[in-house]
Recover the amino acids of this structure.
């Protein structure tokens, strides 16, 4: 059985351990993930999917119809049904976190208001949606913190709603009432975003974090043969694709504890920020950059990265580090 979101081929032993066929079907559909224990964890919806649903529902409800749910085509290609509360051009959508309850944006409500216009699609991000206060490798100062896949999803959903209602154009005002408050619990300020939360979503789905196992990750690592350790949900996705024959274990920030618990050779795979800052906490000192992502876009990053990985290999010869970017391409590897 293959995960249609990541392309990961689930080992037959994992499938056999799942005792609930209905749960297994969700994993087969991509709405959940299967773990090595046979437990199925539900994926949630990203802020991008949530915002797209709010926008579409607001438009569809303009004639006065109450809209309880809408179908959204998300960036990974699926069409999912999202619950909304919409009437007379106004809608709200609560972010469903799936089995990732520690997500600080879990349950956040995104609100949209649709106003007919003579022509064209106009999106107006408002209060509670963060903005960039400096230029970054992917965004310019002053831009709303809406990722490209999320923006595409939102605009596509608005276009679908316009086509369905027969409107010639629309203005959609989008805001997040608790966005500024929730943003205080995120890392937005570190990456140059202020005033609210970001609207994100590479696939449109939130990868579940196995919270109930987080306290026992060292036990998982110690009992695994040649494990792959990863730090986050993006790393989990790509580590499974790069190393399909290995058991991939999500350890979050517990890199040191997990490496100490590992028996024999181990692979450490994921995005560069958390891994490089674990290896060298002072990696950004005197670089002039506030984040590893910004540093990684500079010409001086590559030699520093290679030197850092080479030094770490001498400290921990049994650890092979593989760094990937957000598209899954390998950008650095232990010598």
């Amino acid at each position: 059985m293959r995960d249609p979101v990541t392309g990961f081929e689930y080992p037959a032993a994992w499938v056999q351990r799942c005792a609930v066929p209905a749960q297994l079907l969700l994993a087969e559909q991509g709405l959940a993930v299967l773990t090595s224990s046979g437990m199925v964890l539900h994926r949630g919806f990203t802020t991008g999917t949530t915002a797209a649903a709010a926008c579409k529902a607001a438009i569809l409800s303009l004639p006065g119809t109450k809209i309880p749910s809408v179908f959204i085509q998300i960036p990974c290609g699926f069409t999912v049904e999202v619950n909304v509360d919409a009437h007379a051009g106004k809608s709200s959508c609560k972010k469903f976190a799936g089995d990732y309850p520690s997500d600080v944006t879990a349950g956040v409500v995104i609100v949209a208001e649709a106003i007919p216009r003579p022509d064209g699609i106009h999106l107006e991000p408002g209060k509670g949606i963060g903005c960039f206060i400096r230029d970054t490798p992917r965004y310019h100062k002053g831009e709303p913190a809406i990722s490209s896949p999320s923006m595409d999803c939102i605009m596509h959903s608005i276009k679908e709603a316009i086509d369905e209602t027969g409107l010639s154009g629309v203005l959609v005002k989008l805001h997040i009432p608790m966005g500024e408050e929730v943003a205080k619990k995120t890392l937005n300020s570190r990456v140059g975003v202020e005033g609210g939360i970001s609207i994100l979503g590479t696939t449109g789905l939130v990868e579940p974090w196995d919270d109930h196992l987080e306290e026992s990750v060292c036990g998982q690592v110690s009992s695994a043969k040649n494990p792959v350790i990863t730090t986050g949900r993006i790393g989990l996705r790509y580590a499974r694709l790069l190393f399909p024959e290995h058991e991939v274990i999500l350890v979050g920030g517990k890199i040191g504890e997990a490496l100490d618990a590992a028996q024999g050779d181990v692979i450490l795979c994921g995005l560069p920020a958390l891994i490089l800052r674990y290896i060298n906490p002072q990696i950004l000192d005197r670089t002039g950059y506030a984040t590893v992502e910004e540093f990684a876009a500079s010409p001086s990053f590559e030699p520093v990265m290679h030197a850092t990985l080479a030094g770490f290999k001498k400290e921990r010869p049994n650890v092979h580090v593989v760094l990937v970017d957000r598209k899954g391409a390998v950008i650095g590897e232990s010598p």
